[in-house]
Amino acid sequence: MSGFTTRGWILFAVMAVVWGVPYLFIKEAVDTLTPATVVAGRTLLGALVLLPIALHRRALRPALKKWPWVLAFGAIEMAGPFLLLGHAEQTLPSGLTGLLVATVPLFAALIAFGRGDRSALRPSRIAGLALGFVGLVVIVAGPGLAVAGAPGLVAVGEVLLVALLYAIAPFIVATKLADVPAIGTITLALVAVGLFYLPLAGLTQHEMPSIRSGVALILLAVLCTAVAFVAFFALIAEVGPVRAPLFTYVNPVVAILLGAIVLGEHLSVGLLIGFPIVIVGCWLAGTGGVIRWRAQRSTSTSTTHDTNSDVTIAAIDPAASQTSPPTSPTTSSTPPTA
């Protein structure tokens, strides 16, 4: 099993941070903004940031040609999860929510296995996923995992559904949208989701937002939406749809660390013990326990063979021009290597 590239690990670290900090920003934003307003604001502002780039690269036309899959990605990755998480977090403690969302890599491995990729459940991969999940349990274990009554069980089901949706989305990108410029797909999906939530925001927002909430919303839009989704697509192209969600193991850790640094929240012994376990688990699941640093590709558009999904997908470089014709995904006949 081939490991992460150096670029893959860098993108992994970026995603671990930019999708770990939203917990902090959302907590500030919802102080005076409704959940629907936050979702509409972060998606539409994020689209506004990316729109000039998408227009300059003429990336919207290819995305519009595949609009059903772009809308499917937006619904599965953004619209559905944002709504479900907003409802579930009214009942569940944040520790349990983070733990349940971190089941994304487990669902991704099962999806890949169901699609015929037997390497998705090889022993080294399962050992890494299990070890990382154990590390998360150590971090958030305790009273923060308690669930009270039927509403709590419904909320658990909602978050598990979110994890499943998050696991499905990268496969849509890798198999249906690989030949579409990433910036076009992201921008179009953000606009669609934002317009969907805008009427709900108008109906529910009655309070004048504070400056802190406004700043938090802007940071959510720029860092955790626009920048994050560009990095997310690049990560999928670099390491494939099975390995890409591994960063969700680290997101709760980043959230806890930021809570301690910014909000003065208590750092538990469980974090100090569990964090190294999470990192080792991610490394084992991502590399199979083999230390192998591959040279960085010099071309801006190339193909990466993903042994996890057993397809060849076009590498998406967020900094590269989209003027050259993309490579369409093709089924690979080369079996995964040990």
TrEMBL record:
In terms of Pfam families, this protein maps to: EamA
> Its membrane topology, per UniProt?
Multi-pass membrane protein
The record's principal subcellular location, in a coarse class, is membrane
Instruction: List all membrane-crossing ranges.
Output: 9-26, 32-55, 67-88, 94-114, 126-146, 152-173, 180-203, 215-237, 244-263, 269-291
EamA domain span:
8-140, 159-285
Q: Which GO terms describe its cellular component?
A: membrane
Keywords attached to this Swiss-Prot or TrEMBL record, sorted alphabetically, are:
Membrane, Transmembrane, Transmembrane helix
**Which regions form coiled coils?**
none
Q: Where in the cell is it found?
A: Membrane
Q: Where is this region: Disordered?
A: 316-338
Family membership: Belongs to the EamA transporter family.
Q: What is this protein called?
A: Drug/metabolite transporter (DMT)-like permease
Cite the source lineage.
Bacteria, Bacillati, Actinomycetota, Actinomycetes, Micrococcales
